[in-house]
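Side project, low priority. Logging it here so it doesn't get lost.
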Amino acid sequence: MAIRTDVVVIGGGCTGTGVARDLALRGMGVILLEQVDLAHGATGRFHGLLHSGGRYVVSDPTSARECREENAILRRVAAACIEDTGGFFVATEDDDPAYEARFLAGCRTAGIPVEEISPSEARREEPHLTPRLRRVFRVPDAAIDGFDLVRANARGIVENGGEVWTHHRATAIRVRDGAVCGVRAKDTLTGEECEIACDWVVNAAGGWAEGVAALAGVPLKLVLSKGTMVVANHRWCNHVLNRCRYPTDGDILVPAKQVCIVGTTALTVPQPEELGIEPHEIQEMVAAGNDLVPGFRGARLLRAYAGVRPLYQDAGDQSVDTRDVTRGYVVLDHEARDGVARLISVVGGKLTTYRRMAEEAVDLLCRKAGIHQPCRTAEVPLPGSELWLDAKAVAAKYDLPLYTAQRLLQRHGPNAERILADTVAAPHLKSHVCICEPVIEAEIRYVIRHQWVRTLNDLRKRTRLGTGPCQGTGCTLKAAAILADELGRDLNDVRQQVADFLQERWAGRQPVLEGVQLAQEELVRAAYRCAGEFTAQGGRDA
């Protein structure tokens, strides 16, 4: 199969989907390739913080200003993906008082709104906050859902004429007469390959950007910084809590839906996959959370996970302390840099600045291609952020529990009405498949049909199925049956997906479990093995 488009964008995280949406809004034909699923890399494995810029005002003032500017834009155009929690920078008795003056000066220089409040006022708003406070500063941090953000951008690509190909890996970038002319892609689930003729390629592959650049014969060096985070099964805070000190391990606690996430570490790693989590990392994160909110050490932990920050450092010194590497980004014109025309890489940066990164990359492409269309992503809302529905009204209209309606609206915005429309004639579609989140059958069937779902893990990213306290043990088989039905496959065909899904959930839980909690989990795994042999390798016990 051979097809043609104007631009191929490689990478399905926030930057890649942002680039592809920007291109589509400017009227260009675009195909986005993602080797696994949307938000497979750093976008789906960060702590969920929409930065005010406060974290970087001392260590990286340029990134601080960029975060402050983009924070304001995303609140307008990506409202459905953001919870406006606000943020506190807290200085405890253990922190260096000299840093606070530098922090305040840096906020003023970067234009970040900052207000000092008394420790007693901070503890009225956050009762779990440590009593060992000296000073507290309020900043406009927020929580943002990376999965929702990428999904909204992907919808924007398709609504403006582009295409999104998940589970497609770029296996070759064709170069003829010194210029890119096409991409070869492989469907990683079926093995089918195809050639895509194109005029441009944008490399937005995050931690995999080095490998993508190598497909075109150009060098690119990144510093890959692993960050480990721990999820607690309780919302211990309602504001983002930051330690007011120079960035180090375990100094952020972020409320995320009904849980909270403590992070993060910074360790240089050689590759972006198969990131091991050591026991000492869990202990350090839990201790750091306990410093901010005493009692956190006794929290029921849901899981741990790790992601890679793809940091750009032209010298490529892999031995450097990654906290000293800028969180800024760079857009590389490989014609000027390496003699390969019509290839652009956008690397580094943060989720908070993804839209700005995409705009610069597309501006460069348009200048070189002679296209005179301005960027509109700072004004045009992402799909789902144009309007809001009232959860109580939706719950009453469709006879749903209020919490179910609230969560459905959080995940899908106005599209919730489209999801629920079928339940009028078929009330059984309102049955809960996942009770923890909660997720109803109608939502599962909708995202399979409309949001590029081909695996159970894809389904998790669209609905949060399996991410609650049971971590998939109560809902996986029911979801697999629906997936098989929608894809026209026999349930036995998705047995390996069930095994892989449960193993992935176990891999995240195992590092944080101990005592009674570990015994409970092993009992559940044994039940699955006895009932259906749904385990890790080939459907057999691992």
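Brief comment: Residues 316-320, 535-542 have pLDDT under 50 and may be disordered.
Revisit when time allows.
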